[in-house]
Amino acid sequence: xxTVLATINAKxxxxxxxxxxxxxxxxxxxxxxxKEYTLKEDVGKMAEDILLTGCDIAGLGVYIWNVQxxxxxxxxxxxxxxxxxxxxxGPEVTYEPAFFLEQWPVDYIVSGEGEFVxxxxxxxxxxxQEVVIEGVSCHGKISGKAVQADLAKVAAxxxxxxxxxxxxxxxxxxxxxxxxxGCPFRCVYCLASLEEGVRFFPENYVFENLDYLIGNGARQIxxxxxxxxxxxxxxxxxxxxxxxxxxxxxxxxxxxxxDILPDKMIExxxxxxxxxxxxxxxxxxTTCQSANNAIGRKQDFTLLAEKIRKIREGGKINxxxxxxxxxxxxxxxxxxxxxxxxxxLKAKEVQLGFLKMLRGTALRKNAVLYKYIYDVExxxxxxxxxxxxxxxxxxxxxxxxxxxKYWNSGRFARTMQxxxxxxxxxxxxxLFDEIATWLHTCCLTFRHCQLExxxxxxxxxxxxxxxxxxxxxxxxxxxxxxxxxxxxxxxPLDKKTRKKLLYAIGNxxxxxxxxxxTRKIIxxxxxxxxxxxxxxxxxxxxxxxxxxxxxxxxxxELVS
Length: 560
Fold this sequence. Notes:
Layout: E1 2-9, H1 17-26, E2 31-38, H2 43-51, E3 57-61, H3 67-80, E4 85-89, H4 91-94, H5 97-103, E5 108-110, H6 115-126, E6 136-138, H7 151-155, E7 174-177, E8 180-181, E9 199-200, H8 203-215, E10 220-223, H9 232-244, E11 251-256, H10 263-272, E12 278-285, H11 289-295, H12 301-314, E13 318-325, H13 332-343, E14 349-354, H14 362-365, E15 373-374, E16 382-384, H15 390-408, H16 413-421, H17 428-441, H18 451-464, H19 470-478, H20 495-506, H21 509-514, H22 519-524, E17 526-532, E18 535-540, E19 550-555
Parallel strand pairs: 1-2, 1-3, 3-4, 4-5, 7-10, 10-11, 11-12, 12-13, 13-14
Antiparallel strand pairs: 5-6, 8-9, 15-16, 17-18, 18-19
Helix pairs in contact: 1-6, 2-3, 8-9, 10-12, 15-17, 16-19
């Protein structure tokens, strides 16, 4: 009896820790293997690949991002091999097993943490026994419980982090690590609110696996803990461990609850951390107290903001702050205030997400209370509610697209900061909203446009607003390249004149010596722009990708 475990990841760089845990739990007792695919792959080829293994059982991990593709995959698998036993697991199917058994051609649903339950199920199938297992649903028998695994027993299994088949890919994929499961908070829109308590893996298990990952070249470790800093002692111990084993090029990401970060811990990190080693993601979601009350979220924004500022001022930790649009009782105007409150904290990234009515959550069950209208298919995104219209949410979605391109990308930092320092001081959402409205009015396609177009559109927007930031925008543009780019503007110098200018500068030995340049760099790796009649700005692109471009004023009559 051969079993294949499979799932569809959102991107190639992602890895499925859940599937690996199921694999290490079962591999000593059953003939089991695993496969990973991505959303960009063809479903037909996935089905063919799975069936070529000759499997009798397929266990599939279902998530909000892959549920539609997996429905197609299940249909193909059953069509081509009707006697194939299909088991579903994952958060998408955990809380509504009856629905998926009725609507999908599958045999079993595992609800909750399946490391040991899957083994029980496989054993029952192999022995042709009646399946009466807590957490397992089948036709005619629905389990009402999402099981939880004993983490001490999970830690005793072979490590899912040290599999030989993962070693070569470790340097170019995100490695997901968990040191705990569960969440102490009860936000009604979140699946974590349905779990009981918070459980921790043994510290030695965590340290041994981190030591292996760091020693074998992992470049990006993302901790899956819902609230990584819940236990101060454990948090500090893991931080100390990572700092002591720091390796250049390694990035560690954590989801933190900012309110409970001790000042002493922040001070210690600001002193000890190497640059670009830690990234903190803090879910603020809203600063509207009535919305927080409605979703059951406890938050002291004044205290949180103080903690965030201390982290940011330390300059060591990359900050990523989360907001959610569409929360109950938050109007459009109040959302704008929440956005500006959060953006004022000056994080490197501000992630603007949209409320999703996840299966099993209390908010979805009580959607009628707030007159929610949402997509019936995954990802179940909210369209409107009693306090925010569909048009208003669409307006925020357009602004979110602009936020991603013009702020979170980091490519327009100088121009954005100049706008926030003057014309849009304290009006952060208003800027992104106005750009988005202008693009929409001009019927300009923005979501998938090229970098040149992004700069051109912003330049045209600024001209329309009578704001002169061309020189700053040009600097941002040049910093996106390692070689001389074509330019997003109509260049005042024709190609022949530019070539002649660069040739002349390349023969100015005094200038070259003063600036440690060569003729070859001037002619091959430089751009030139006029500043005034006899003054030019020379932008030099270094050969070393780790270095920054340099800009030099050149004052000389070059052309007779």
